[in-house]
Amino acid sequence: MRTKTGRYSGYIRPFSYLIDFIIINIFAAYIAHFPVEHILFPAVLSIAWFCIAAQLGFYEVYRYTKVIAILNCALRQGSLFAIVSFALAFFYAKETSFHAIVLFIFTSFGLILIIKFSIYFFLRKYRVLFGGNFRRVVLFGNSKTVEPLQHFFTENLDYGYKLIHVFDFDHDKKTKINEMFAFVLNNRIDEMYCSMSDLSQNQMSDIVDFADNNLKTLKFIPDEKQLLFRNFTFEYYDYIPVITLRNIRLDEKFNKIVKRIFDIAFSILIIIGILSWLTPILAVLIKFETRGPIFFKQKRNGLNNQEFYCYKFRSMEINDEAHLNQVSKNDTRVTKIGKIIRKTSMDELPQFFNVLQGNMSVVGPRPHMVSHTEKYALKVDKFMVRHFIKPGITGLAQTRGFRGEVESDHDIINRVKYDIFYVENWSILLDIKIILTTIYNTLKGDKKAY
């Protein structure tokens, strides 16, 4: 028997609500010894939990939601619920000990998180093993534009998308669009993915109207060079709607403070734990091989495109091209010790002093030489968006294989794409993930580290 699309998915969220409600109230009674016999107390506690969840989107987990996004939301949910729990205990349950409240928060929230992830990963396995909970989809666009998503759908069945057909363009787009409409209606298609760059405004409007009138989910695929990775937000000036095209997470004061505290703490740890003993050793080796300073400083563009001096251990012989040309593979300017420290990324460690000074962050878009910034700003669309936040020692683009030398337009376009994603989707957990991935890649060896 064929599994019906989304047959049980409508029950998952109500089931989660119920389970979380039971856990919170049972643990409140038997661990924290809150006065749950008074109906008002458990009611307020439960309402607080679900109000926080509604505001943060704690239950808004979809098949394409990343684990890091779930953890980030869970961290905020748990923190706010902890504040509410302490406040309620202070005003209505003063006999409850601090230890009991802490135990209640960690055990109840920990169990809720375990169940949440169990459901999440069970559904991913269920889709692969039993073929259920799938969304039937079609792609519409030229082969180059839809190929990455086509590959994703066919290689990642655990996400729950079943690619039924790909409509490639020919000379008569209108006929192809009508063919797609008929196919969608006759084959129980759930979602349509269309290439934006290959459609006119009128054609996009026709497709939107069709999707709305036939209750089909419609999503558009931007061209790689369009880089439409934006978090559109609506604001109202009185009753006048105003659209903000780019929502930058680090513009929020609280997020800035959290990131700055993390940067300072992590930098002090590296400077005291590693640079304190590594610097004298490298100083001797660098001086032994070539004359010149131990450190190399270079003007780069940072926050709001302001120039600053970026520090590195010197890995090249003194030359006049250092501020103009990037290091390339088998570059004759690189010294013997330079090859080693570049391969292991040790040359970047002095940038933790840049972080302490406040002109860099541990994680962020990598800063470019001033000459390269001017070049790419003219050549690559939205390149300057990277400068809305501080540059970093490592970044999302670097963990995805786009570090070091820019060998082609493909490299810089993808670097900017990942940088913009980071700018709009920053979280402290994403920073930690990038740092751990960077350490792993360094230990494993990166082919672009030269």
UniProtKB/TrEMBL annotation:
Stored InterPro entries: Bact_transf (IPR003362), EPS_sugar_tfrase (IPR017475)
TM spans (from-to): 12-33, 39-62, 74-92, 98-123, 261-286
Pfam families assigned: Bac_transf, CoA_binding_3
GO-annotated molecular function: phosphotransferase activity, for other substituted phosphate groups
Ribosomal protein found in the keyword field: no
Keywords in alphabetical order: Membrane, Transferase, Transmembrane, Transmembrane helix
Protein's cellular compartments: Membrane
Family: Belongs to the bacterial sugar transferase family.
NCBIfam families per UniProt: EPS_sugtrans (TIGR03025)
Name under which the protein is recorded: Exopolysaccharide biosynthesis polyprenyl glycosylphosphotransferase
Organism field: Flavobacterium geliluteum
